[in-house]
Design brief:
Blueprint (H helix, E strand, L loop, with lengths): L1 E8 L20 E2 L2 E2 H10 L4 E8 L5 H14 L3 E5 L5 H8 L1 H5 L5 E6 L2 E3 L3 H11 L5 E7 L14 E9 L3 H18 L10 H5 L4 H9 L5 E5 L4 E3 L3 H18 L13 E2 L3 E3 L4 E2 L4 E2 L3 E3 L4 E2 L4 E3 L1 E3 L4 E2 L4 E3 L1 E3 L4 E2 L4 E3 L20 E2 L2 E2 L4 E3 L4 E2 L4 E3 L2 E2 L9 E2 L2 E2 L1
Length: about 400
């Protein structure tokens, strides 16, 4: 019997995802037409012997989250529950706090997945790898290759990075418990360390798997890395959501061909991989793709061109608009002949293992050119150009903008 834990964080996380995370918890943001975390759930539900999926984070009970859990349980025919942390406890502290819930029913092993990654999720391969290599109490980290450039390194620099996807046995709680005990002892010896929290034990419960637990396990022979050649990327910024959307849309041709739009008589012109929600209304002269995702109830007028973009539900693109490298927020409107364009922050296309960089918002005091983001209910007038800009929700623009955050 197996379980899976998906770490979804909370509202103070995902700040680089604003203004999109104002409207919906980041794990529910649609990537390639479905909520980001649904890709994780789908992968977990396919693993034979998977009995329960636990989402763990510190979002307050949330109507959108509850609705999503109910529909996901019905779709995947597996119990899915949300466990709410009372505070941000770190990647290890959360699973330690809820260890009784994870261990109930006696799973022999459980996966832990970070919600802000996109991947092929080779979970079955990780299980097979552990059986071939490890003893019954060994743990597996999913790793992938990345090219580092370090000038004159003084120590070994690994080309493998941690993907934030793990396979544990119940024995991991012994190791996390050791860190917890050590944290408590340090607090007794240095009580001022806990002064920034409401009580000392809260701070002792903040445990990070990567720094606090894996470092101690690294030399023990109990920790293995399964290296994947499949796609993987972090989804930290809104720009990386468009890149993740491309990776998932590409995967749909094998696993979900029904999600990809086809060229049909009387339908829009489709180029490459495109997802269109069945309720969207698209004019037959529109040209969409590659890498386009059109949400629920979206209206796309005549002669519209959309490329490398996510258009969220209820948005309206009037005739002859051009939308490139952009996320168009919920219920936003783009007027006729307007052009809304961003700059992609894609990794090197010639490097098969290239990973998207986490761009800083500003460089040298200027906004870094990146994906254009329109928050929800933004109105763009006819015949203007919006370039490399972030527009906060409920704005009605009156003119063109370039390289700006419009507050």
């Amino acid at each position: 019997m197996l379980k899976a834990v998906i770490l979804i964080g909370g509202p103070q996380k995902g700040t680089r995802f604003r203004p999109l995370s104002f409207e919906v918890p980041k794990p529910l943001f649609p990537v390639a037409g479905v909520p980001m975390v649904q890709h994780h759930i789908e992968a977990c539900a396919k693993v034979p012997g998977m009995k329960e999926i636990l989402l763990m984070g510190f979002y307050q009970p949330h109507e959108a989250l509850s609705r999503f859990l109910v529909s996901a349980q019905q779709e995947f025919k597996i119990p899915i529950r949300y466990l709410q942390e009372y505070a941000a406890l770190g990647t290890g502290g959360g699973i330690y706090h809820f260890r009784d819930q994870i261990l109930s029913g006696g799973p022999e092993a459980f996966f832990v997945l970070n919600a802000d990654v996109c991947s092929e999720f080779p979970l079955q391969e990780m299980l097979d790898f552990r059986q071939q290599h490890g003893d019954v109490h060994s743990f597996v980290i999913l790793g992938t290759t990345v090219l580092h450039y370090v000038e004159k390194p003084s120590t070994f620099v690994s080309e493998i990075i941690n993907c934030g996807i793990y396979l544990f046995t119940p024995a991991i709680f012994q190791h996390i418990g050791d860190v917890f005990q050590r944290n408590q002892q340090e607090l007794v010896l240095c009580p001022y360390l806990g002064e920034d929290s409401s009580n000392g034990w809260q701070r002792a419960e903040v445990i990070r798997l990567e720094q606090d637990v894996f470092t101690a396990l690294a030399g023990s022979g109990k920790l293995y890395v399964y290296k994947t050649d499949g796609f993987w990327s972090q989804i930290k910024s809104a720009g990386s959501a468009i890149y993740a959307s491309r990776l998932y849309l590409n995967q749909y041709s094998q696993c979900h061909p029904e999600r990809l739009a086809q060229n049909k008589p009387g339908g829009p012109i489709i180029r490459g991989n495109v997802y269109i929600h069945p309720t969207a209304s698209i004019n037959s002269t529109a040209v969409l793709g590659p890498n386009v995702s059109i949400g629920k109830g979206v209206t796309v007028g005549a002669g519209v061109r959309v490329r490398e973009s996510i258009v969220l539900h209820g948005a309206s693109l009037h005739d002859h608009t051009c939308v490139l490298n952009t996320i168009v927020g919920w219920d936003s409107t783009i007027g006729r002949w307007a052009r809304v364009e961003g700059t992609p922050s894609d990794p090197n296309p010639n490097d098969p293992y290239a990973k998207i960089d986490s761009e800083t918002l500003f460089r040298d005091g200027r906004l870094t050119p990146s994906i254009t983001i329109l928050g929800c209910s933004v109105t763009i007038p006819a015949e203007v150009v919006i370039l490399n800009s972030i527009v906060l929700p409920h704005k009605e623009l009156s003119r063109s903008y370039k390289n700006q955050i419009i507050l």
